[in-house]
Amino acid sequence: MPQNHQVLLDNRPEGEATAANFRLVSADTPALQDGQVLVRHHYLSLDPYMRGRMNAGKSYAAPQPLGEVMIGGTVGEVAESRHPKFTAGDKVVGMGGWQEYSVVDAGQPGALRKVDTTHVPLSHYLGAVGMPGVTAWYGLVKIIDPQPGQTVVVSAASGAVGSAVGTLAKTRGARAVGIAGGPDKCRYVTEELGFDACIDYREHKDALSLSKAVKQACPDGVDGYFENVGGMCLDAVMLRTNAFARIAVCGMIAGYNGEPIPLQYPQLILSNRLRVEGFIVSEHMEVWPQALQELGQLVGTGKLRPRETLAQGLASAPEAFLGLLKGRNFGKQLVKLV
Ligand SMILES: NC(=O)c1ccc[n+]([C@@H]2O[C@H](COP(=O)([O-])OP(=O)(O)OC[C@H]3O[C@@H](n4cnc5c(N)ncnc54)[C@H](OP(=O)(O)O)[C@@H]3O)[C@@H](O)[C@H]2O)c1
């Protein structure tokens, strides 16, 4: 069995997470038992939710235990199998964590899924045709439910979730407006993803200034807002919401290090009769097959062209993860292992 390199959560952050919270170790891979599969990971997914798991406090999911391999989505290839449904060479997606290999009890529901890489590259099963894509689909379709001609705004628009939100909104006949950090990201959002407009929030020092830019980009107001960030973006867009607008609260990355992100205008929830709903994608497994089918088609036919940022090698995972929390990624952040 191969030697395995792993990244463990060594200690919990106080405030901002740092590379010193993680530890790189090497370990022997245990011999396979009946029903188990050895997977060699080709890509590891880095996702903002991992920052929440590093904390000990109460949340929607249990904290990541100290001294254990960081959790995370992985795609790779079956290296060896003692399960009848898997054979060496199968391409699979699972939750292998921050390590080069994983031994999986393949009979456990949802533990390992074979994927077809004929039209969709393997890495996209961690992005647009994986958890982030389904997240976009759920928030947009089930909460915002855009009607043709309505305007949908999404923050972190160039990212794994945001990029899919825009494409899904456009295919439903809505106008899609992104908010992203910097001119390069905004250009990508309009020119390559096909959004109708994109606002660079870094050009604005407060919510009122950003809100003027939202008004310009959304002359008919905002009917749906897909929130990935919180703070100034939320205040600015709320000021431009139409009556009965829907806000899908997907993420609040501006506050993931514990910084306060107070809501400036909560009275708008009443005066504009807003529907504000948070959701966690893993609690809606019933939509995954339908969502993955649509997302797979969009990527396979080139209608959705997701961008990726690749960090090379397992040892680069902590720094790449910290960069993701600061917007240094451009599109889906992955670690390439093979
Ligand atoms: N509810 C769920 O079930 C669920 C599932 C998956 C993801 N999510 C959430 O969805 C959001 C997007 O996730 P993702 O995987 O697609 O990540 P991503 O957008 O690919 O990467 C995160 C992006 O957030 C932006 N960002 C970071 N800090 C920011 C700040 N202080 N202010 C404004 N923008 C900031 C950066 O883009 P800019 O450079 O453009 O600012 C960064 O590139 C996250 O909030 C995540 O927690 C929720």
Overview of this protein structure:
25% of the residues lie in helices and 26% in strands. With 338 residues, it is of the alpha/beta class. The strands form three sheets. Strands 3, 4, 5, 6, 7, 14 and 15 form a seven-stranded mixed beta sheet that branches. Strands 10-9-8-11-12-13 form a six-stranded parallel beta sheet, with helices on both faces. The chain has a two-stranded antiparallel sheet with strand order 1-2. Strand 11 (222-227), helix 6 (232-238) and strand 12 form a beta-alpha-beta unit. Helix 2 crosses helix 3 (160-171), helix 2 packs across helix 8 (288-300) and helix 5 packs across helix 6. The chain starts with a strand and ends with a strand. The mean pLDDT is 97. NADP nicotinamide-adenine-dinucleotide phosphate (NAP) is lined by residues 47-49, 132, 135, 156, 158-162, 180-181, 185, 228-229, 250-251, 253-254, 279-281, 324, 327, 329, 332.
